[in-house]
Amino acid sequence: MESTGLVIDTGIFIEYLRKPEKSKTILASLPNDASLFVSAVTVYELMMGATNDQKKKDVETLLDGISIIRFR
């Protein structure tokens, strides 16, 4: 089966970061073979919302390995 490419928006990441049971989030339910993408705007929004060093680290960890669609 062919893998799927998905652009993930800010709300999906916020739900994952806030919810105690990560397995019950939309992000956790995405297919394992999906290629994930995030826009540069979403990265900016997530980093601006990270109010301390630990939250910034959490965002960086979450985005690790996800391709960023740059602003042109």
Largest sheet: number of strands, sense, barrel closure: 3 strands, parallel
- Mean pLDDT across all amino acids: 93
Q: Label the structural class.
A: alpha/beta
Gross morphology:
globular
Can you write the helix and strand succession as a string? Answer: EHHEHHE
> CATH-wise, what's the superfamily?
5'-nuclease
Provide structural commentary.
- This protein has a three-stranded parallel sheet.
- Helices cover 47% and strands 15% of the residues.
- The N and C termini lie far apart (33 Å).
- With 72 residues, the protein is an alpha/beta fold.
- The model has no long low-confidence stretch (mean pLDDT 93).
- It contains four helices and three strands, in the order E-H-H-E-H-H-E.
- It has one domain (5-69): 5'-nuclease (Rossmann fold).
Secondary-structure map:
Blueprint: E1 5-7, H1 10-18, H2 26-29, E2 35-39, H3 40-49, H4 53-63, E3 67-69
Parallel strand pairs: 1-2, 2-3
